[in-house]
Specification:
disordered C terminus; 9-stranded antiparallel sheet; 9-stranded mixed sheet; alpha+beta; membrane; 1319 residues; endoplasmic reticulum
């Protein structure tokens, strides 16, 4: 044991390892060293970050330049500022310089005000956080004083109290908890509400008095700040030079809440922006949508058109000036020097002038309008009550505001299985122990009762009904298909909504504790054996008989349930206060600290002469050094245990039972007056197995760092000393605990994990016939469980001698204190411990499908979406779930790729390609048989099945399903094979990747997205899905049972998978359709208005003059015509929500970008030029040979252009609401109000042109009203007639929208051309 008293207690400051000849002034590079702030004068760490946070971007001085700099990152803003500044040049100006600045100043101001408001909100939040109080040790006053969070610095000692939020990342040095634990809640970091244990640094476990910071004399070396919440590496170096390892279980993170601990003391390791919470606070993610990328191309074309027409006009002006020769016209403008300009210089100046005049061709208001419309669309999506989950009281969350339209263009969906398609609420179904299977039929009937309740509730609440399921099975289908159909039913959600609601009320803070999950009905046969085993053990204990007299089968049964009970990290909570754990330290004997004490306790002399009083007193002074961390490969007191093992190396005692167990209180049952205990588990798997063991009266009743207390039938409460916890991780796929058995003198390893891993770690089959028989039978049952869709875990154990344990402990201690390659050494240390295991049995746990998953998957597939499921489950389980959720169809063939090497994988992919080509591209079945000679058995393909959509690529998708395991997937993702794998996978309707790692998930998504150039969506619920979610074009997180990591990394968050159907098929379709049409309308509107000015250049010598007043030119697009298109872009619905969900085939409209094709831009440009011709020349001929002035002719043209543009919008609007009417009336009213006021305000402002009283005179002329009637109708008549006579001019959705509303699904399908899926 490390003897650390107050003499070891240290000053610390951050200083860094410096390279030779190179001095670093500040910042983190490599490993750092911390010194405590116990100096009386200066703080030892002045050059490192304090705890003050600042998430604002601006200050009063930096706001204007910094905000403008950020806005000028958008090229459009730079362009418009350049045009406005160009207007200040006298020789090229076209408008009043101040007036030309108005639009760009307005746009920049609106954005700046929005940014300022957001930054002010961040400033208020920062101020509130920085001024929170905490207790910090003052070296001057030798006590803890209150300070603001912002005053805390690295090296400060902080006293933490219950329910207090941590102000910084703190290394735990002391706790008021008798077990030196500190419980924290990390909901603000990862969304998980279950309590987590943190352990005092090992060196300070045995302090028997209050921690005194002034006597601290240790040095801490740790890694530089990083954003990994699940990792912390470091060492604490004592004055003697000895090191203790620091791990994440010693670190309390900023933002966490202290629970169940009255008081704790720690030293600040990371402060302020260097804390892990702040390093993970990256703010909202920015993505650029596909539609926006297409729009940028058309903006570029607008620039080209602008340059072309300006160049054309400039050349025309130069030629016009050239024809005068030396005779300059009287209206010619002289140069600033008073000389005549040459035709070339006049053309150059005019080119710049026309750039200013025609600037509205580039839609300055388009970018702001798009942001406004997207915010409104997000608001409407949030208000959709169909996307609200009453059970969890959660709404859809939109975390990325700028890619809503991408939801309507998805082509591939990559989904996790557990917690995404399923509920991640594990229900224990059956198990096998010692090769005997226990079906738990009564438990199955209990679950069936819940299923009937749910079915009755759905039947009562259903309004529309669903498509009937096919019940018949054709004659050529095998029995396996029948089994799939039956198992499909078993994966339906078996708990009613009312039951779920009641469960949530009962469980409150405790996760995974609904009645369905915990009220397990035991199997009578197994329950009888458990009682028989316990009775015999009780008898042998009373008569001090050795363990060997218990039969092997019964021994395996009791060990099986002991493993289920203790091989986990479950925290036991009291029922009335579920956030407070139950302390079960038994004080009849002093806690076991070493193997020496452990052996002496069970000798006859020890059993007869134990002193309770002395033991009780020793509990206070001699605290156990075996304090365990729940992380991977934590070995509390490894050094002390090793020392005692060496001392007792020659001691050998026969394992015997004691007449009275050292931790037995004489009671046969564990009862609390308040009610039953509650289990706070970090995963639903752990909770399900603990509740299953409790059903057999093998209950977990207490957990301490060095001790786990269980209650067994007839034996009462037993305390297992916990030596090590080898935590679960995705690499090892297993968890182990090393304990000392309270009834025998044996060190036992209990292991649970995936069957694919545990089976490889068992003893060789030649060790015994019984074990071989158990392994074979268990493997058969595992296959049956997997075929029934159950999640399987294997349970095993291993008994270590003291010599074996001492050898392993020595190696483990070296690995734990290693500096280089520590993770690999710890992994190898675990592997040495977890080999030659004895198989005890296996469990089958059901993870039920969420409501509506099969219907959602079927609808998404009919919409033309390719769905790939990427899961870590074993192949058989994943396949069965895939059939249950209709991802795989029993009528379609399934290709299974399982390879043991890269060469075998390449051969399988090659043969699969040959088979696909021969089967679906050749007419002869014989050719298919010759081309494919492996185990793939072709089945008949229903040729009448129509495939609903096609994509841009000509590659066909066939009625095939592909299943590939993780090992084969690793080979297939190799650079040499990824193209072949992708060619095979894209030929299949569904792809199922089993046993895939988080890295493989992201690699698959990236491969499909980059190689096929398609839109991808990834959806998941856990931390292992984060990389996949971030790689996809759109990431969706499920706010489920595995915390909020996936949600925080996502663009959208959903409470349930079934809401994805409406999000994509309805809101995605609407968002894409609205924005696509709005963008095209913007281009049309601006081009039409600019063309009016262009036509006038032919009548003014290409001089750059305009017949429209400059006020109208500036504000026409910014004010008069802006509001109606915003309303239409927000509220327009080309098809109703009911139709879009009833006919998912309409989603193909967005997949193929039907609403925004490149030719549509040019068609709108042509239409805009035609309408401008009509609006220009009809007034021109109407006022020909009259004496009206320029503005008397130009003002009607402006009015006609406004009416034509608004009527054009009306033709394109599919859904009319009162807001559409109001916006149009408001725009017209605003135009005439501004015109009347402006024309009545200034008689002599712009001589010689005088706009005074122009609109007033126009309103008195009948000709004006006649023009307003004839011109818009003439301009829009061709478009309207073409739409009516040629439906192909509309998008595919518009084409069928009116028909779909009135005919049924079957007749509608006949209208849609049959075609194969194309990817």
């Amino acid at each position: 044991m490390f003897l650390v008293g107050h003499s070891l207690l240290t000053d610390t400051a951050w200083h860094f390892k410096k390279k030779e000849g190179k001095k670093k002034n500040s910042g983190w590079t490599g490993e750092g060293t911390v010194r405590a702030n116990t100096l009386l004068n200066d703080h030892p760490n002045p050059h490192y970050a304090n705890n003050k946070i600042k998430t604002t971007k601006y200050t009063l001085l930096s706001f204007l330049p910094k905000n403008l700099f950020e806005q000028f990152h958008r090229f459009a803003n730079v362009y418009f500022v350049f045009i406005a500044l160009l207007n200040f040049v006298p020789v090229v100006n076209a408008f009043q310089p101040e007036l030309a600045l108005a639009p760009v100043v307005f746009i920049l101001s609106v954005t700046a005000i929005k940014d300022l408001w957001e930054d002010y909100r961040r400033h208020r939040s920062d101020t509130e956080i920085n001024h929170m109080d905490c207790l910090v040790y003052s070296s001057m006053e030798r006590r803890y004083v209150e300070k603001y969070w912002k005053e805390v610095q690295v090296g400060d000692f902080i006293r933490l109290r219950c329910n207090e939020i941590l102000p910084a990342d703190v290394l735990l040095l002391s706790s008021s908890d008798p077990d030196r634990l500190c419980h924290i809640e990390t909901a603000t970091l990862d969304g998980e509400t279950n309590l987590k244990q943190r352990q005092v640094v090992r060196s300070f476990l045995d302090l028997d008095c209050e921690f005194d910071p002034f006597k601290y004399h240790s040095v801490i070396e740790c890694e530089k700040p990083n954003n990994d919440l699940n990792r912390f590496r470091g060492y604490i170096v004592h004055r003697s030079g000895r090191r203790d390892v620091l791990c994440k279980e010693n670190l309390l993170l900023r933002g966490c809440t202290i629970r169940n601990t009255e008081e704790a003391v720690g030293i600040v390791i990371y402060a302020g922006h260097e804390t892990k919470a702040m390093l993970n606070n990256n703010g909202p993610r920015y993505k650029r949508s596909k539609l926006e990328r297409q729009m940028n191309v058309d903006v570029f074309w607008c620039v080209i058109i602008l340059l072309v027409i300006c160049s054309f006009a400039a050349v025309g002006h130069g030629l016009w000036m050239f024809q005068y020769g030396d005779k300059r016209p009287v209206f010619d403008v002289l140069s600033p020097q008073g000389t005549n300009l040459s035709p070339i210089m006049s053309a150059i100046y005019l080119f710049l002038t026309l750039i200013i005049v025609f600037q509205v061709l580039i839609p300055i208001s388009l970018f702001v309008s798009i942001e406004i419309v997207k915010i409104c669309q997000v608001y409407l999506i949030h208000q959709d009550m169909d996307l609200y989950d009453e059970e969890t009281d959660s709404h859809l969350q939109c975390r990325a505001l700028n890619i809503t339209e991408d939801l309507g263009q998805m082509q591939y969906i990559f989904s996790d299985k557990t917690g995404t398609l399923t509920e991640n609420k594990m229900v224990f179904r059956r198990c096998t122990v010692a090769g005997v299977e226990y079906s738990h039929d009564a438990n199955a009937r209990r679950l069936a009762m819940y299923q009937e309740m749910d079915s009755e509730e759905e039947e009562c609440m259903s309004h529309g009904g669903t498509l009937p399921r096919r019940e018949s099975v054709t004659s050529h289908q095998s029995a396996r298909v029948v089994l799939r159909s039956q198992s499909t039913k078993s994966h339906r959600r078996t708990g009613s909504r009312a039951e779920a609601k009641r469960a949530s009320i009962l469980s409150k803070h405790t996760a995974f504790s609904s009645p369905m999950e915990k009220d397990i009905t035991p199997d009578p046969q197994l329950l009888y054996k458990v009682n028989e085993c316990s009775s015999q053990m009780d008898f042998m204990r009373f008569h001090s008989q050795p363990m060997s007299q218990l039969s092997s089968d019964l021994s395996d049964i009791i060990d099986f349930f002991i493993a289920l009970t203790i091989c986990n990290t479950v925290v036991v909570s009291s029922p009335n206060q579920p956030r407070h754990k139950v302390r079960m330290r038994f004080e009849l004997k002093s806690p076991v600290k070493t193997i020496e004490d452990f052996i002496k306790r069970f000798t006859p002399s020890r059993l007869t002469s134990g002193s309770n009083s002395s033991s009780s007193s020793s509990l206070i002074t001699n605290r156990s050094s075996n304090k365990g961390c729940s992380s991977l490969l934590s070995s509390p007191s490894a050094e002390s245990t090793l020392t005692k093992l060496h001392e007792e190396q020659s001691s050998h005692l026969e394992p015997t039972f004691s007449p009275v167990p050292p931790c037995y209180d004489g009671k046969a049952s564990w009862n609390l007056e308040e009610g039953e205990l509650r289990y706070e588990a970090e995963s639903p798997d752990e909770a399900a197995l603990v509740y299953a063991a409790r059903a057999y009266k093998c209950s977990l009743v207490g957990r301490l760092p060095d001790q786990v207390t269980v209650e067994l039938p007839h034996l009462g409460k037993l305390s297992f000393e916990l030596l090590h916890t080898l935590g679960f991780d995705s690499t090892r796929k297993r968890m182990s605990v090393v304990v000392k058995h309270p009834l025998t003198d044996q060190i036992t390893v209990y292991t649970k994990g995936a069957d694919s891993v545990i089976m490889d770690l068992l003893k060789p089959l030649d060790t015994g016939k019984r074990q071989k028989k158990i392994i074979c039978r268990t493997q058969n049952y595992l296959n049956l469980y997997a075929a029934d869709g159950l999640r399987t875990l294997c349970i095993a154990k291993k008994i270590l001698s003291k010599e074996e344990y001492a050898c392993w402990l020595q190696c483990h201690l070296e690995a734990e204190t290693a500096i280089q390659g520590r993770e690999e050494l710890l992994f190898q240390s675990a592997l040495r411990l977890e080999t030659n295991l004895q198989l005890l049995g296996a469990t089958g746990v059901e993870d039920r499908l969420q409501d509506g998953v099969p219907e959602t998957v079927a609808a998404l597939r009919r919409a033309g979406l390719q769905i790939w499921v990427l899961t870590g489950d074993k192949q058989e389980t994943a396949v069965n779930i895939a059939y249950a959720c209709k991802l795989l169809d029993p009528e379609e063939e399934m290709l299974t790729l399982n390879a043991d090497s890269q060469e075998a994988c390449a051969l399988l992919l090659e043969e699969s390609l040959h088979y696909i080509q021969a089967k679906f591209l050749c007419s002869s079945a014989d050719q298919a048989a010759k081309a494919f000679h492996t185990n793939f058995v072709p089945c008949e393909i229903n040729s009448s099945s129509s495939l609903s959509s096609h994509n841009t690529s000509p590659f066909l998708v066939h009625r095939l399903g592909l299943v590939i395991d993780g090992r084969t997937l690793a080979y297939a993702l190799d650079k040499t094979l990824e193209d072949k794998f992708l060619e095979v996978a894209r030929s299949c309707r569904s792809v199922l990747c089993c046993r895939s790692t988080p890295l493989q998930k992201s690699m698959v998504v990236k491969l499909v997205r980059n190689k096929l150039k398609v839109m991808t969506l990834a959806i998941g619920d856990g931390a292992n899905d984060v990389s996949m979610i971030q790689v996809a074009d759109v990431g969706v997180g499920i706010s489920g049972q595995e915390g909020m990591q996936a949600v925080m990394a996502s663009d959208f968050a959903l409470p349930r998978f079934r809401y994805l159907q409406k999000l994509l098929l309805v809101h995605g379709h609407w968002c894409y359709s609205r924005l696509a049409n709005m963008i095209l309308y913007f281009f049309y509107k601006n081009a039409m208005f600019v063309a009016l000015l262009f036509w006038y250049q032919f009548y003014c010598g290409f001089s750059g003059s305009a017949m429209i007043d400059q006020w109208y030119l500036i504000f026409f697009n910014l004010m008069f015509s802006a509001f109606p298109q915003l309303v239409t872009g927000t509220l327009d619905k080309d098809v109703s929500a009911e139709t879009l969900q009833r006919l998912p085939q309409l989603y193909v409209n967005g997949q193929n970008s039907e609403e925004y094709k490149p030719y549509m831009f040019w068609m709108n440009m042509i239409d805009a030029f035609y309408q401008s011709l009509v609006c220009f020349f009809i007034p021109y001929f109407a006022y020909a040979d009259s004496d009206v002035d320029l503005f008397t002719w130009g003002t009607p043209i402006t009015t006609l252009a406004l009416f034509t543009i608004l009527l054009h919008l009306g033709i394109e609007t599919k859904t009319w609401t009162w807001m559409n009417w109001l916006s149009i009336i408001f725009s017209i009213t605003l135009f005439f109000t501004v015109a009347l006021c402006y024309n009545a305000s200034c008689p002599t402002c712009f001589s010689p042109s005088n706009p005074y009283w122009t609109m007033q005179r126009q309103l008195q002329e009948p000709l004006f009203y006649l023009l307003c009637l004839i011109t818009p109708v003439t301009a829009l008549l061709p478009r309207y007639a073409l739409i009516l006579s040629h439906p192909w001019c509309r998008s595919s959705t518009n084409k069928y929208s009116h028909t779909v509303e009135t005919i049924n699904i079957i007749s509608f399908k006949r209208l849609i051309p049959r075609c194969a899926f194309q990817i």
